[in-house]
Amino acid sequence: MVSTATSKIIIFWGDGNGNFKQKSEVTVPKPFVHVVDINVGDLDGDGTREVLLIATQGHRPSDKNFYKGYGFLKLDIVKRNLVKPILLESNKNVRWFPWIYVCDMDNDGSDEVFSFVVQRSLDRKKTGKPAFYYSSPN
């Protein structure tokens, strides 16, 4: 699975012998077009893992919104076809963060998503909470 500079997610499908002749692709919806991390997790606890994307705005440093804000998206795969990503949460005006981590933090059967980047309070002191946290409303 790769993310390209053209706002596309591409999955190359292998045949088990090192050949990747088939591919599926989907365009990431605007404005969060610059995917910075891809992970997997079971957000709803149904036993099926979803592809999770964290993206920011802009592609080039010359873009006025380059690396500003974040979009957290879910990408479903149905029989090797990619479904248009669904935006689960976003904020255009905060500092972006590069990586997301996925695990079942509260042992309820569904995964939570968080960043290791730590929030800072108004006086710039670390709060001890992640800058990003997502838990699916079950």
Throw out a few tags for this protein:
138 residues, single chain, 4-stranded antiparallel β-sheet
Instruction: Report the principal-axis shape.
Output: globular
Mean pLDDT: 85
What radius of gyration results from the CA coordinates? 16 Å
Strand order of the largest sheet: 4-5-6-9
Largest sheet, strands/sense/barrel:
4 strands, antiparallel
Order of helices and strands: EEEEEEEEEEEEEE
Q: Number of DSSP helices?
A: 0
Query: How much helix, percentage-wise, in residues?
Result: under 10%
Quaternary state of the chains: single chain
- Derived from helix and strand composition plus strand pairing, the structural class reads mainly beta
The tally of beta strands, per DSSP, is 14
From the N-terminal CA to the C-terminal CA, the straight-line distance is: 28 Å
| Unreliably modeled segments | none
Strand content: over 45%
Description:
The protein is an all-beta fold. Helix content is 0%, strand content 49%. The protein contains no helices and 14 strands. It has strands at 2-3, 8-13, 22-27, 34-41, 50-56, 68-75, 77-78, 81-82, 86-95, 101-103, 112-114, 118-120, 126-130, 133-135. The strands form 5 sheets. The chain has a 4-stranded antiparallel beta sheet with strand order 4-5-6-9, with no helix packed on it. The chain has a 3-stranded antiparallel beta sheet with strand order 1-2-3, with no helix packed on it. Strands 10-11-14 form a 3-stranded antiparallel beta sheet, with no helix packed on it. The protein is globular.
